[in-house]
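Standup notes
- DV: blocked on the single-chain target, sequence here:
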Amino acid sequence: MIKHVVMFRIKEAEGLSKEENIIKAQNLLKSLPSKIDLIREYQVGINAKESERAGDIVLISAFDNMEKLAEYSSHPEHQAVVSFLKKVWFDVMVVDYEY
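- DV (later): unblocked, structure below
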């Protein structure tokens, strides 16, 4: 299995406040498991504790293997969410690992 972890730091953009973009990003991310059957595990969380080092949203998902993760990454539904996220993040970090 492959664990895919993504942490986003969100900004005010697209005519929405930072907080509004966080909620919109969360809702878009949470919609993906019902649209993409490659996903084995999926969690989306909003940061609960402010810190200079903290991200705003974390996505933790799992896939059978790297090939399935690559299929997910290029899936049109995922790409639509990424298109929005690219407009509202100012920092993003990704870790993919086998477990």
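- Follow-up: The mean pLDDT is 98.
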